[in-house]
TrEMBL record:
SUPFAM superfamilies assigned: P-loop containing nucleoside triphosphate hydrolases
GO MF, one example: ATP binding
Main subcellular location of this protein, as a coarse class: membrane
Protein name: Iron complex transport system ATP-binding protein
Family under the similarity heading: Belongs to the ABC transporter superfamily.
Organism: Aquibacillus albus
UniProt-annotated location(s): Cell membrane
Signal peptide: none
UniProt keyword annotations, A-Z: ATP-binding, Cell membrane, Membrane, Nucleotide-binding, Translocase, Transport
Top-rank taxon: Bacteria
Pfam families membership: ABC_tran
PANTHER family per the UniProt record, alphabetical: ABC TRANSPORTER ATP-BINDING PROTEIN MODF, HEAVY METAL TRANSPORTER
Domain ABC transporter: 21-261
């Protein structure tokens, strides 16, 4: 598949694929260290996944590979029907992978308004250098509304709170109709209320009929929303478990994963975790 296929067929062609992500026996060595070891991970279209791991587990390294910032030392990475690891990732394909991360946050220009930032997602640029079409403007406004950030659309990024910034960046990532949306610890630095409101918006995104496949990366079991039916536990660069969330988020699996006896409690389809006494 070439970049042109996207121009010609847009989402329609990708609509025909059933596997969004397929990692086969993927390993990564950086500066002589094994960062990822023998990762197998397959994501079917329509699934939403949580990637859960402690600090240093290799989550960011794994995401960097999905976005072709890192090439695997060993194994095969296929994202949206394109095997990579050798070829550079085409711009059109990159646009089909939305990424919201702290790295992106740091690159956004402080003086840009929320509206400009969302519009820039349509060009996959940091900053707005091209003239958006009327259609793009209408879409950006709708996304600002959908993500609950319309009221501060004209405010500059520097004046927005952390929660407001995350909403704007998610809206921005949806401008290009991504097939895969990666949310890397989006609730970092948020208080309880801001976190819950953001999670609500993320759930809404997954409920849309045109929703991208979402990978939600977190350290916290409490953030696993009911829409995330699948969970991958990453530990010391290896897949500890990957399966239905209800099979993974159990006392037994998590006690083994953390190396500490824990109790999982479910309330309104959300889990929480306490250390056993
Ligand atoms: N380019 C690199 N060179 C050497 N070591 C690296 C490199 N990138 C990551 N590492 C190491 O690989 C391990 C995994 O790092 P990574 O940032 O992927 O973890 P993480 O799960 O995202 O952690 P956190 O939750 O703390 O962000 C860490 O021990 C880190 O120091």
């Amino acid at each position: 598949m070439s970049d042109n296929d996207f121009n010609q067929y847009g989402r329609g062609l990708l609509g025909g694929i059933s596997v969004v992500l397929d990692l086969r026996n993927v390993s990564l060595i950086r500066e002589g260290n094994w960062i990822l070891k023998n990762i197998d991970w397959k994501i079917e279209k329509g699934e939403h996944w949580v990637l859960l791991g402690l600090n240093g587990a290799g989550k960011t390294a794994l995401l960097h590979m999905l976005y072709a910032f890192y090439f695997p030392t060993k194994g095969k990475v296929t994202v949206l029907n394109r095997e990579f690891g050798k070829d550079p990732l085409g711009e059109k394909l990159r646009q089909k992978i939305g990424l919201v991360s702290s790295t992106l946050q740091n690159r956004i220009y402080d003086s840009d308004s929320a509206y400009q930032i969302v519009l820039s997602g349509g060009f996959a640029s940091i900053g707005l250098y091209e003239t958006p079409t009327d259609e793009m403007r209408a879409k950006a406004k709708q996304l600002l509304r959908d993500l609950g950030c319309f009221e501060y659309a004209d405010r500059s990024y520097r004046t927005l709170s952390q929660g407001e910034r995350q909403r704007v960046l998610i809206a921005r990532s949806l401008m290009a109709d991504p097939e895969l949306l990666i949310l890397d610890e989006p609730t970092n630095g948020l208080d309880f209320l801001a976190r819950e409101r953001l999670l609500e918006s993320i759930e809404q995104v997954t409920l849309s009929p045109t929703a991208p496949t979402v990978i939600y990366v977190t350290h916290h079991v409490e953030e696993i929303l009911p829409c995330f039916k699948k969970t991958l536990l990453l530990k010391e660069g290896e897949v500890f478990a990957a399966d239905d969330t209800t099979k993974i988020i159990t006392n037994q699996v998590l006690s083994d994963f953390f190396g500490l006896p824990v109790d999982v409690r479910w309330y309104t389809e959300r889990p929480s975790l306490v250390k056993q006494r």
